[in-house]
Amino acid sequence: MRETIRASLREDLGPAWQDLSTEALGAARERPAVGEVRVKAPGVLCGLDLVPEVVGVVEAAYPGSFRAAHPTTWERLARDGDAVAPGTVVARLQGPVCTLLTAERTLLNLLQRLSGVATLTRRFVEAVAGTRARILDTRKTTPGLRALEKAAVRTGGGVNHRFGLYDMIMLKDNHLTAMGGDIAAAVAEARRRSGPAVRIEVETSSLAQVQAAVGAGADLVMLDNLPPETMKQCVDWVAGRVPLEASGGITLETVRRVAETGVDYISVGALTHSAPALDISMKIRLA
Which residue of the set 53, 203, 245, 264 is catalytic? Predict the structure, then answer.
């Protein structure tokens, strides 16, 4: 988390760690001030724990400076996972003008992005309420922000799929092509090389492929871009022997119908690659 924050601030402050706009204020930059973080659109809040971390990195970036000598305090006025209405003040910071201004954009960028992911995830979760389906994320994340975006998915009520290429085997269509399209051979080779502890998922695009994957001993089977009618056939044939994951262009308009087929999971790349940022601002006033 701190590495991500530091990298984000480095984009803003450059190699010399300078905020030229704030430094141009002269002595006014040292005045005590209050900053209120306010939500401007309805959504699900996520990322508040990053507020003191961003401030801390800003203060540490100026060792021996006025910022470091006058630490900023903050008050949490909401919790991650809260459904917030427009106008809600979710945090209040008190400290020098210079710290609040330097931290403002990085702080808001992270809050807006993560709250947007949590908000969209909550909408998908609510859309499948009452079914057995759980909403999964994917690896279609913003480079450098995967851990935070996947945390935002959990905040919205979703479930994390594999974190990366290192913690699970997923034999997708291109992997199967490399094995000549032989699902049984691909699963057997993967199992031989990984051992029993590593889960193996197989991407399928027909009932016949599902049958081959289950017969080969896959731990999880993905139903990729199948119509709901075929998904239901797969669910009925598998009969709970392995979990089934539906995937492929699923939207808020179609997710309920997919869930009603009886699949265990529905993966939605849009949770992290297309979630609109939640509108959040910070207004500063002199204390």
Answer: 203
Q: From 100, 84, 87, 83, select the one nearest 35 (Cα to Cα).
A: 100
Q: Which residue(s) pair with 285 in the sheet?
A: 34
283 is catalytic: no
The parts of the chain modelled with pLDDT lower than 70 are 63
Going by C-beta distance under 8 Å and a sequence separation of 6 or more, which residues neighbour residue 163? 146, 147, 150
40 is catalytic: no
Q: Is 219 a catalytic residue?
A: no
224 included as an active-site residue:
yes
Catalytic residue among 53, 82, 224, 264: 224
Q: What is the pLDDT of residue 162?
A: 95
**Residue 117's closest CA among 139, 90, 87, 148?**
148
- Exactly one of 2, 76, 132, 172 is catalytic; which is it? 172
And the tokens for 240? Answer: 């709970």
Q: According to DSSP H, which parts of 14-133 are helical?
A: 20-23, 50-60, 66-69, 97-127
- The domains of the chain, with CATH numbers, are 2-124+275-286 (3.90.1170.20), 128-273 (3.20.20.70)
Q: Tens of pLDDT along 179-233? A: 999 999 999 999 999 999 999 999 999 999 999 999 999 999 999 999 999 999 9
Q: Which of 6, 10, 40, 105 is catalytic?
A: 105
CA-to-CA distance for 54 and 114, rounded, in angstroms? 15
**Catalytic residue check, 150:** no
Q: Provide the 8-state DSSP code for 159.
A: B
Strand pairing report for 244-247 and 83-84: unpaired
Q: Contact 262/132 with Cβ under 8 angstroms?
A: yes
136: phi then psi, degrees, rounded to nearest 5:
-110, 150
**Identity of residue 284:** I
140, 146, 154, 256: the active-site residue: 140
